[in-house]
Amino acid sequence: MKKVLVLHGPNLNLLGTREPEIYGYETLEDINTTLYEKAALNGWDIKALQSNHEGVLIDAIHAAREDGTVAIIINPAAYTHTSVALLDALNAFAGKVIEVHLSNVHKREAFRHHSYVSLRADGVIAGLGSQGYVAALEALIRTAERS
Ligand code: DQA
């Protein structure tokens, strides 16, 4: 069974009530449930984790190096734009990395236009809301089926 780690960065625990006009009305639990269901239908395994702490996200990436995880789907939230440490951790992970943003960060403030994580990501999805996570998982599954 192929294993995917889904990482959600700071403030994403507030989804549904946090600036819903930007981030939508779905909760993090709604998003994770959809991903769990889609993965299970395809015989894949998902572990989802949200943290407001950079080190917790980094530790989870380190653990993914050792436990057979084949890919990471990550919305680093504000750490996207600040965290060299998260980039370094992802650089030490050998599997696929897909970066997801609910909003189209390129349409927003200039400080959101730069992503450290994009320097490592195999794919980047922005602006599709929660569907971005589903698209990321589908792409991983289809790519694995083809190889
Ligand atoms: C975000 C975009 C980031 O700029 C922001 O800090 C977030 C969420 C998104 O999903 O659109 O917290 O990653």
TrEMBL record:
Swiss-Prot/TrEMBL catalytic activity: 3-dehydroquinate = 3-dehydroshikimate + H2O
EC number: 4.2.1.10
Annotated Pfam families: DHquinase_II
Binding site for substrate: 75, 81, 88, 102-103, 112
GO molecular function: 3-dehydroquinate dehydratase activity
InterPro entries (UniProt xref): DHquinase_II, DHquinase_II_CS, DHquinase_II_sf
Keyword list, A-Z: Amino-acid biosynthesis, Aromatic amino acid biosynthesis, Lyase
Site (Transition state stabilizer): 18
Keyword Lyase: yes
Example GO BP: aromatic amino acid family biosynthetic process
Transmembrane portions of the chain: none
Pathway(s) this gene product operates in, as recorded in its UniProt entry: Metabolic intermediate biosynthesis; chorismate biosynthesis; chorismate from D-erythrose 4-phosphate and phosphoenolpyruvate: step 3/7
PROSITE patterns to which the protein is assigned, alphabetical: DEHYDROQUINASE_II
Domain of life: Bacteria
Active site annotation, chain numbering: 23 (proton acceptor), 101 (proton donor)
Presence of keyword Transmembrane: no
Family in the record: Belongs to the type-II 3-dehydroquinase family.
Subunit structure: Homododecamer.
Function, in words: Catalyzes a trans-dehydration via an enolate intermediate.
The protein's name in its UniProt record: 3-dehydroquinate dehydratase
Annotated source species: Candidatus Halomonas stercoripullorum
